[in-house]
Specification:
The chain has 293 residues and is an alpha/beta fold. Helix content is 38%, strand content 11%. Helix 2 crosses helix 3, helix 3 crosses helix 4 and helix 6 runs parallel beside helix 10.
Length: 293
């Protein structure tokens, strides 16, 4: 057992003790070394891959979950991957070429649409009536060779009981190619992409309603993993358990500044993890040992 796994098991034990005594972990808090709560500001003070924010749920929680829903970009692969910057750059190029703008002006317009509509594509469709196919084909035409198979994540997802689904604002083709590069494409039942959402992106409520209906998901028995806190508001309101996936301490974060959650964990976030594979492995007692995470 590595140091991170030992720490996680120790924290899990203290969490169960606290729950048994009627205690609760509040948003923005973590368990201290003596079982008392401490502020999230101290969450990254520990060495190693795992921070104390990676506290797993109570052990009876797993029996209530039958559907596992994962965002794709910056969730199933690390935030310091070069994939999203490549996509982001190609979105800028598309906008600049479409309007005949220089790169800086194209970038500014892209970010305006992104913040206002949830995706740049939605802004272009709403304000200029463009079709989505050329945009998606161009922006997702990237080199994924930097992504390596993630054995720990594949093992963890395989061991989870129930259904596994991807819910992404990207295209199905992008999700399939990315999951294939990570070695996890066979673990998922289906992908609900931006086309399935009728090009209405997260965090719009209609997207989640369409997803839940299409896949007959009971929100009370589902958990969603996301890197953007705003995309977990509606799932939480519908009754889903929510897990925010954040960068590890010191890890490069390619998200825009407005997308990054402050130290105070919002009340609609149930759990926070900086290591998705380790978080999932800790939930499944029968997961194989010896996986290097």
């Amino acid at each position: 057992m590595n140091e991170a796994s030992f720490f996680l098991n120790d924290t899990f034990g203290r969490l169960k003790t606290a729950l048994a005594g009627g205690g609760a972990i509040e948003p923005g808090e973590k368990l201290g070394s003596n079982g008392e709560s401490a502020s999230l500001a101290d969450a990254f003070s520990q060495a190693g891959a795992l921070s104390p924010i990676d506290t797993p749920p109570p052990d009876d929680w797993l029996s209530r979950i039958d559907t596992w829903v994962f965002d794709l970009d910056n969730t199933l692969y690390p935030s310091d991957s070069d994939l999203w910057p490549k996509i982001d750059q190609r979105i800028t190029l598309f906008v600049a070429h479409f309007f005949g703008l220089d790169g800086m002006s194209g970038r500014a317009l892209q970010k305006y649409y992104y913040q206002r509509y949830g995706t740049t594509l939605r802004g272009l469709m709403e304000e200029h009536g463009i079709g989505p196919d050329d945009f998606l084909d161009f922006t997702h035409d990237i080199d994924r060779s930097s992504l390596l198979p993630n054995l720990a994540l594949a093992t963890a997802i395989t061991a989870l009981p129930g259904r596994k689904l991807i819910l992404t604002n990207g295209s199905r083709d992008h999700a399939l190619r990315t999951a294939e590069a990570l070695g996890i494409e066979a673990m998922f039942e289906d992908i609900f992409d931006i086309a399935a959402a009728d090009f209405v992106p997260k965090p719009q409520a209609a997207t989640y309603e369409r997803f839940l209906e299409r896949h007959a998901v009971d929100p009370a028995r589902a958990v969603m993993f996301e890197d953007l806190a705003r995309n977990l508001v509606i799932p939480h309101e519908r009754g889903m358990t929510t897990v925010l996936v954040v960068p590890k301490p010191g890890q490069m974060d390619h998200r825009d500044a407005f997308e990054i959650t402050s130290e105070a964990v919002p009340p609609h976030i149930d759990f926070v993890t900086s290591d998705l594979a380790l978080f999932l492995l800790a939930l499944v007692p029968d997961a194989p040992d010896g996986i290097d995470v």
